[in-house]
C-alpha cells in the first residue's frame, strides 16, 4: 500500500468492450495518476461480469471525492456499474463482536494498537461480560448485550442501534457465537465479516473440529466470509489450512485452528477494508 493519500475505486458491471478505456480515460482527462489497477472478467454465472479496482493518487486530481462521485456517476450509470470509491485518509470504523473465545479479539486489538490495522474501533459488543476489563483497558467502549431465547429481537435491535450510533463501516464477528437475525444480515449486507473455524463448505455449524476429528480428515482450516441469513454460506473472502494426522486430538486441532483463525480473519478483514473484495452472488473476486 502507498504511504501517500489515494482514492480507491472498485466496481463491477456487465462485461463489454471499452470498460477500461472509459474509466481510465475519465481519470486521465482529469490529470489523474493511477497507482495500481486490477481487472477480472468472470463468466461463471448467467452473465459475463467485469470487475475492477483502481487506486488513484488523490492530489493528482483537481477535485475532491464528492466531486469525483458526481462527475463519474454518468459513466457508472451508462455501464450499469455497482461501484464505490473511498479515501485512504479516512479510517474505516470497525465494530468487533465477541463471545467467550479470546484469540481473535486479542489478535485484532494487537494489530490495531500497533497500527498494522490502521482503523478506528469505536466499540466492542459482546453477549458476555468476560472481556470488559480487557477491552476497556485499551480505551475502547464495551457493550454487554445478552442474547437469550426470549429476547433475541430486542438484542438484535440493540446491536443495530449500537452499530449505527458508532457509525460503523464494518462489523466483525471475532468468534461471536450467536446467529444474527435475517434483518441484520440484509441491512448490513457485505458489511458483516465472520471467521468460521473450518474450511467451508465442509463442517458448517457448531463444533467443526469435533466433526473433522470424527471424519479423520488430514487438513483442517478456517474461513473468513461475509455473513448472510444462510448459516456459514456467505461469500468467501479468505481461507487457509494446516495438515494434521491420526495422532492429533480434538484439543490439538482446536489449538492449531486458533492460529489459522487469527491469520485468516486479519487477512480477510484487511482485503475488505482496502476494497479488494467484490462480491457477486455467492462468490467473490479478491484483488490481492
Q: How is the topology of this model organized?
A:
Elements: E1 6-14, H1 19-29, E2 34-42, E3 49-57, H2 65-78, E4 82-87, E5 94-98, H3 103-113, E6 124-126, H4 132-137, E7 142-144, H5 152-165, E8 170-173, H6 182-187, E9 192-196, H7 208-215, E10 219-226, E11 236-243, H8 250-273, E12 277-280, E13 283-286
Parallel strand pairs: 5-6, 5-8, 6-7, 8-9
Antiparallel strand pairs: 1-3, 1-4, 2-3, 9-10, 10-11, 12-13
Helix pairs in contact: 3-8
Radius of gyration: 20 Å
Please identify the top-level CATH class of the largest domain: Alpha Beta
Strand content: 25-35%
What count of domains describes the coordinates?
2
Quaternary form: single chain
Compute the separation of the termini in Å. 11 Å
| Low-confidence residue ranges | none
Amino acid at each position: 500500500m502507498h504511504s501517500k493519500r489515494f482514492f480507491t475505486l472498485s466496481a463491477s458491471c456487465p462485461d463489454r468492450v471499452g470498460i477500461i478505456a472509459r474509466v481510465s480515460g475519465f481519470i486521465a482527462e482529469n490529470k489523474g495518476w493511477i497507482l495500481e489497477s486490477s481487472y477480472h472478467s468472470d463468466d461463471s454465472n448467467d452473465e459475463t461480469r467485469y470487475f475492477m479496482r483502481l487506486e488513484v493518487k488523490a492530489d493528482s486530481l483537481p477535485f475532491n471525492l464528492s466531486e469525483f462521485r458526481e462527475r463519474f456517476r454518468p459513466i457508472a450509470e451508462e455501464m450499469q456499474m455497482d461501484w464505490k470509491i473511498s479515501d485512504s485518509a479516512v479510517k474505516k470504523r470497525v465494530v468487533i463482536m465477541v463471545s467467550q473465545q479470546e484469540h481473535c479479539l486479542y489478535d485484532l486489538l494487537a494489530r490495531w494498537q500497533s497500527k498494522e490495522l490502521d482503523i478506528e474501533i469505536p466499540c466492542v459488543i459482546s453477549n458476555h461480560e468476560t472481556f470488559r476489563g480487557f477491552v476497556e483497558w485499551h480505551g475502547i467502549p464495551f457493550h454487554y448485550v445478552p442474547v437469550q431465547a426470549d429476547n433475541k429481537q430486542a438484542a438484535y435491535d440493540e446491536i443495530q442501534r449500537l452499530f449505527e450510533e458508532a457509525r460503523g463501516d464494518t462489523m466483525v464477528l471475532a468468534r461471536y457465537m450467536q446467529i444474527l437475525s435475517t434483518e441484520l444480515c440484509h441491512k448490513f449486507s457485505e458489511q458483516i465479516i465472520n471467521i468460521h473455524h473450518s474450511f467451508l463448505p465442509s463442517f458448517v455449524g457448531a463444533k467443526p473440529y469435533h466433526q473433522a476429528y470424527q471424519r479423520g480428515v488430514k487438513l483442517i482450516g478456517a474461513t473468513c466470509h461475509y455473513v448472510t441469513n444462510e448459516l456459514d454460506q456467505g461469500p468467501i473472502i479468505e481461507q487457509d489450512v494446516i495438515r494434521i494426522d491420526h495422532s492429533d486430538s480434538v484439543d490439538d486441532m482446536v489449538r492449531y485452528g486458533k492460529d489459522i483463525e487469527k491469520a485468516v480473519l486479519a487477512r480477510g478483514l484487511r482485503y475488505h477494508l482496502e476494497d479488494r473484495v467484490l462480491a457477486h452472488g455467492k462468490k467473490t473476486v479478491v484483488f490481492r
